[in-house]
Amino acid sequence: MLKDTLLLFNEWWETKEISKGKAKEYKRRCYSKIKKIFKDYKQILILTGLRRVGKTTIMFQLIEDLLRKKVNPKHIFYFSFDELVRDPITLLKTYSEITNVNWKKENIYVFFDEIQKLPRWGPKIKILYDNFPNMKLVLSGSASIALQEEAIKNLAGRYFSEKIQVLSLQEFSELKLRREIPSFDIYKEKISKLYKEYIHKPFPELVAWEDIIEIKRYIKELVVDRIFIDIPETFSSANPSLLSTLTNIFMNDVGMILDATSLSKQLGIHKATLQKHIHYLEFGNLINIVKNYRPSIRSESRKMKKIYPAHISLAFAHYAEPNIGRINESLVQSSLQLDKYWRDSFKREVDFIKLEKGKLVPIEVKTKETINKNEVSSLIYFMKKFKIKKGYVIYQGEEKNIKLNGMEIILKPIEKVLFGFSLT
């Protein structure tokens, strides 16, 4: 049975090529960086990210590159731990039986998919890496937090990690229009027409889909509900019903400030149970937690946390659209991977705080096409308070800079930010 599975996974052992259905023609913008790490460094390459963002496709594209370079097909080994196997050594032994490749001595490339499903995978991979320098390892997994924790604990100095996000607006537009789009400004009109479609379906397989009901069903069943299966496989104490309830709450109230005491009372559960299950949802890449910035790390971590969907499309799959302000805020948070905001006791608030080269960069998200000084008063106050020279407003208008009392506020169109997942 295991031999049949390995032969099915590794078609190139017999055909000497990989099907286009696996190694898709379009390369994500992150691919060149991933390929360089894979080519230039001995360390393990770990790909993380939400389900269905294309991690497995990237693995297959790396395999295709190896085959094009005339690497012996039998020296390339792929396995997904969606199939329940508990020991990578058993896998490698079976691989050798099929291919007659001496995996302990010959140079081989090993691709392990959904590695988080292998119990105590960190020490097992560490043994392979430390004892078999002939082996180049590439791992992927859908539980980013778990992968990072396990890698830090067991693989320090032995790995590079790359998080694969959903499609950027640039990537979506290229797939939709079937052409390279190197510049936002040149294609601005076409990109703007695709914007609303993009934010509902930023997954590679969904680009050509039109039926909104089927799109929501895909995201709900193949992304969200699969995570409810993954989490209990890792955490025996996880309650699937509670995970589902919390997900419904967080997707319905995008960017809510978490009051753990009140919410645990409403749900009739212990506060510690609530916090544990919120961690599970973060573990599964369903939600992002944004902390209230304080110069003291201790005070920052204790309260006033905000909770966002990992991407706003996950909220669309549960409910009708939130208001445009919450949509834009969530899109900026997930696209720029922001984990801090600021709010003081007088309810002055800045939507996000980014740490860039050791400096604070405040970011406000607005839904208007024009901005006046009163609408960014909290941003200006924050910049004065922390002696910051540069801040950003992401909004619906045109790109421009405003000089104000020795400070600079840079206004950026949200479509341009989402185009390249960048403020620059």
Explain what the structure shows.
By secondary structure, the protein is an alpha/beta fold. The protein is built from 18 helices and 15 strands. It has helices at residues 2-9, 12-15, 31-40, 55-68, 88-99, 121-131, 144-154, 169-177, 188-200, 212-234, 240-252, 260-267, 271-283, 297-302, 312-316, 324-336, 377-385, 414-420; strands at 44-48, 76-80, 108-113, 135-141, 159-163, 256-257, 287-292, 306-309, 340-343, 349-350, 352-356, 359-365, 390-395, 400-404, 407-413. The strands form three sheets. It has a five-stranded parallel β-sheet, sandwiched between helices. Strand 2, helix 5 (88-99) and strand 3 form a beta-alpha-beta unit. Helix 6 (121-131) crosses helix 7 (144-154) and helix 8 crosses helix 9. It starts with a helix and ends with a helix. The mean pLDDT is 93.
Q: Separation of termini?
A: 52 Å
Write down the oligomeric state: single chain
Provide the β-strand percentage band: 15-25%
How can the largest sheet be summarized?
5 strands, parallel
Q: What is the number of helical segments per DSSP (H or I, 4+ residues)?
A: 18
SSE topology sketch:
Blueprint: H1 2-9, H2 12-15, H3 31-40, E1 44-48, H4 55-68, E2 76-80, H5 88-99, E3 108-113, H6 121-131, E4 135-141, H7 144-154, E5 159-163, H8 169-177, H9 188-200, H10 212-234, H11 240-252, E6 256-257, H12 260-267, H13 271-283, E7 287-292, H14 297-302, E8 306-309, H15 312-316, H16 324-336, E9 340-343, E10 349-350, E11 352-356, E12 359-365, H17 377-385, E13 390-395, E14 400-404, E15 407-413, H18 414-420
Parallel strand pairs: 1-4, 1-5, 2-3, 3-4, 7-9, 12-13, 13-15
Antiparallel strand pairs: 6-8, 7-8, 9-10, 11-12, 14-15
Helix pairs in contact: 1-5, 6-7, 8-9, 11-13, 12-13
